[in-house]
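Case study 2.
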Amino acid sequence: MLTALLAGAAFVSARTPVRAQGIPVEIVLAATTDVHGRLRGWDYFGDSSESARGLARLATAVDSLRLADPGRVVLLDAGDLLQGNPLTFVASRAAPSALHPVMAAMNAMRYDAAAVGNHEFNYGLPVLTRALAQARFPFLAANARRPDGSRAYPAYTLLERAGVKIAVVGATNPGAMVWDRGNLAGRLVIGDIAPAVRVAVDSARAAGADLVVAVLHTGLGNATDADPRGTDDENVAARVAREVPGIDVIVFGHSHREVADTTINGVLLVQPRNHAGSLAVVRVRLQNRGAAWSVTEKHGTLVRARGHAESPAVMQAVAAGHDAARAYAARVVGTTTTAWRADSARTSDTPLVDFVLEVERRAMKADLASTAAFDLGAAVGPGDITVAQL
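Prediction:
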């Protein structure tokens, strides 16, 4: 305890006039990404608790950071929050006036900024617009514009911690123009990430930013065959680090991987685990040199959700959405007197796969449909069939 106190004495509190004193200060960045509705540690398909994930568990870790570093913590997210499980599905169909449980959780945790993820567009722009209007913090996308050229979302936001002016620049994935073209065509134009981030960073630096953090909904490497356009703009975090000057830290997501601490071209990059499995924590030390701050040290770590108790504040904030999701998943939608199994689906016709194909064919008014038997252990019945089983 004494060692920790002495170490903390080397830094300043949020109220200390650091520019006048020239004392080093440490800013703490905490980040999540690709939460996909995992607000609580709960499996809605199995209707059982999960111990290794959930935003409510990470909220406890964030509370600890704020207690240890008062006035110096910035909480961020790199996108893909509003889609991914029964909770988000039910919320997307709730009354327009209803508080979205994802926004309720993030407001309770006091997020400072988030990037718009490509899955935010899955339920259509009206649903997204209503949800974002409930957030007490900005959602950012420097590369998203309306057809008339106006900004759809802010490019960056400015924060201040312990006398340090921090710019958070956000960008979303251009692949959404293909994956969600039915929702975006004629309504939104998402361009290349790197050029848009460069303009935003230059603007933020001109506005006096001492520390620039980019939250990007994009993976680390090059394009994958998931982008049918064959372009190189799906996973470009490394490219942004190499090509865009003025960035100190990049928090990236989209690829559902985990990176604790890597450096490219002097830029520190981190990626927390998807589904709220971990929290990325970056500590940036700055030194006041005359009229400006300069970064002298930065490093990242990961804090696992497992082992953390769930935050009572977040649990309360999402209680209504959680109950609605459980009720939806348990809803009986059919029955069968015999068991339908997929164990022989790769060698012969089975009622279970035939059912999937017929749903596809009718939904799309098609003559033919095809699918693959991904899980030979899949089965329903005999008896009632629920939404969760489907």
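The longest helix spans residues 55-68.
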